[in-house]
Write a structure and sequence with these properties.
By secondary structure, this protein is of the alpha/beta class. The protein contains nine helices and six strands. It has one domain: Creatininase (Rossmann fold, 3-Layer(aba) Sandwich). The protein has helices at about 30-40, 60-80, 105-120, 140-150, 160-165, 165-170, 185-195, 230-240, 255-275, and strands at about 10-15, 20, 45-50, 80, 125-130, 155-160.
Amino acid sequence: MERTEARPGPAGAAGDGRWRPPSVWLQELSWDQVRDYLDRDDLILLPVGSTEQHGQHLPTGTDSMTAIGLAQDAAQAAVALVAPPLWYGWSPHHLAYPGTITLVPEHLAAIVVDVGKSLAYSGFGHLVIVNGHREANLAPLKIAQTRLVNETGQSVVIVDPYYFGATTAIAQRGSAPGGIGHADELETGHMMHLHPQLVRMERAVRNMPPQARWFVGDPYVPGDRAFGAASIEDFRSRTTPSGVSGDPLPASAEKGSAYHRRMVDDLVGLIQQLREVKVRLKSFAPPI
């Protein structure tokens, strides 16, 4: 689901004098329009998310929709292109609830490598992966990132809201420690800003599983920690009956808008910084 209410106009000069393609979306351009863009720029964004349960108050496409929203708004502001989004991520524990679709991590990494190589073969030297599945997708995405950098010479940067939006998230959070987890106030507020018609706050519930020493899921709670892994059964037992882990109740569209706009502004700044870095693509075999 792509938001189209703010699409750019016809190709031509942007307000800052920069040439603007007729759409930020790669799939909406013809090959010669892509060539025209590559004559001027070599940066493209790739939204990666998931299709997984997000409680009873958020849609299963939440992670993909937030990645798409961030990438689209930043691309419009920075005059960049966005590749078609990946709607599937690494979500095995969420199979505890209906509607979840997961890839094994090796497949996700391989798909991102194939996408990145295809883009590099066209001449896209800078790839910015916008990960809406927050930390869960990072392991396979970092593997893909390392392979692309070494095999193609492409510059690959990953933007993850857990880290890229941390300053705003910490400043505005209203939940107690342990409240940031899954389908929490950050994701809920972000969706209230992007797709309010899909949010059912009357179904939102707080679920704060006990936080064992060293195993704290809330990324903004300071302290030393270790990392465990939840089986499907374990995750179901900790989150039943809602599927929520954390506290979505302090969420608001106003907070979600501020959270989104700060990340978009920072993403635009990152794009401008990356454009100053020259990339020399290597000779490599395309994915065949």
